[in-house]
Design a protein that fits this description.
This protein has 139 residues and is an all-alpha fold. 52% of the residues lie in helices and 0% in strands. The longest helix is centred in the C-terminal third of the chain and has 17 residues, at 118-134. The chain is globular and about 40 Å long.
Length: 139
């Protein structure tokens, strides 16, 4: 079952409200997750979700979010921020296999762009949230 606060995204409100709630949910789910490689190479940093674009650029935020639901799917502590292709591949495959989330984002597109497109990331995260709700992992 989900842990931590998870906003109910079906509340009345405009797109901005839903976006803010989804972003806060992502922050809450990933808060405090740290890959040792981040500590080693960059000091005491961790996954820090601040937006729907640059925060997702290394793929670690996707991995952290999925790891919070499926900790046995992969060893988060071994991930490297520079291994973008691996991180995106791992995250999207885990989302599809474990949460039933369709592959709305392409690994190649994510790797090609230095900063992910915010609308694409937002759409994917909405679908992931919907799939997790459908599986009873988010209430």
């Amino acid at each position: 079952a989900a842990k931590g606060p998870a906003p109910h995204l079906k509340r009345a409100g405009g797109t901005a409200t839903v976006k803010a709630m989804l972003l806060e949910w992502c922050r809450a789910r990933t808060r405090g997750l740290t890959a040792p490689s981040l500590r080693r190479s960059l000091g005491p940093q961790h996954v820090d979700v601040q937006n729907f674009s640059g925060s997702w650029g290394s793929g670690l935020a996707f991995c952290a979010l999925l790891h919070s639901f499926f900790p046995d799917a992969f060893d988060f502590t071994t991930l490297e921020p520079s291994a973008r292709r691996h991180n995106f591949t791992l995250a999207f495959a885990t989302a599809e296999e474990r949460a039933g989330c369709p592959p709305l984002l392409e690994v190649e597109d994510m790797v090609r762009l230095p900063v992910p497109d915010a609308k694409c990331v937002y759409t994917y995260l909405q679908e992931l949230y919907r799939c997790l709700v459908a599986r009873g992992l988010v209430r």
